[in-house]
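Folding problem:
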Amino acid sequence: MPGLSLTFHSAGGEAGSGYQGMFIVSLPFAVLRGGYWAIIAMVGIAHICCYTGKILVHCLYEPDPQTGEPVRVRDSYVAIAKVCFGKRVGARVVSIAQIIELLMTCILYVVVCGDLMAGSFPDGALDTRSWMMLCGIFLLPLAFLKSLHHVSMLSFWCTMAHLLINAIILGYCLLEIGDWGWSKVKWRMDFENFPISLGVIVFSYTSQIFLPTLEGNMEDRSKFNWMLDWSHIAAAAFKALFGYICFLTFQNDTQQVITNNLHSPSFKGLVNFCLVIKAVLSYPLPFFAACELLERAFFRGKPKTFFPVVWELDGELKVWGLAWRLTVILGTIMMAIFIPHFSILMGFIGSFTGTMLSFIWPCYFHLKLKGHLLDQKERAYNYFIIFLGVLFGVVGIYDSGTALIHAFEIGLPF
């Protein structure tokens, strides 16, 4: 696909703040449910995701038979899966998991926009679904973007919005330091509800989908591990500090989205509006990634696929290709509007795809491809992460499934 590989320049910062950072406003609520264990989880999961990112990229390389130097023989997550699961099964399983993860992320951004705007104007004429449709109008022009340079620019402004929002919230909390509830943070956790918050923490670190192409597009690939280390150290430190300080400020009144704790309606509206802008700017990255995967699967031309290629020979999108991309955007908007209890459903499916993509599969691939080179300690650590991934996945699926059943018993949210 001309000019459309999954690259994002300055990706270490932009991936963290763009794709993942949107949900940092939910981390104080995780501290409410999990206490110090939630803070420990923010640091521990950062370490695990950093490790699985490194070993996933390690699986792209094989030693040269003559020199013994590592040579990059694979270029994507799917390419690794083809070797480990087989060409037909591997490509399909991983591609489906990636597409589900990316499209549900896009849909969730639309849901977040509607919820934030409805929360800012609770007595307004527009309800949540109407706000989703209104915010969705600003997503339609993204179908015209064919260059990832433009996506990178949007990610840059997303980073700026992210920093602004965090500075505003932390500044507000620091002004309230005299009323901080130091004794409110407990060592006990809410076992009934904390697994959902744990899922938010896991999701806030997952970027494995992008790492193989990210590493392949770095000017100096030898600095990949360094970049991954420091980006995860910075993310873990900031997220733990952010969740802790915000909880100390609002204590047991901490809301699921921390901006809802802001007392001034106008101030809350301003911060929520900034979050909506950030959500809109966060949308392009998973949208482009999902489109690339879908186009590789369905639009490569005969005999590879049933549908023709969506690109002209000069690199321009065909008219019907543009219509296809608009359909993807409209589909995410309509799913956000009409699927009842979508956020719980996303937690249900995400508990499977998220843990598979970020915990289980990277370790399984590493053991299968590099197991003969690993010592006993490294193999044991890989098995431990697989165990954690299975545990988080099962608990998350059970917890979200129970909440989904309960929600359907109550009825539709509109």
About this structure: The first strand starts at residue 61 and ends at 63. The mean pLDDT is 81. The chain is about 70% helix and 0% strand. Residues 148 and 371 are 36 Å apart (CA to CA).
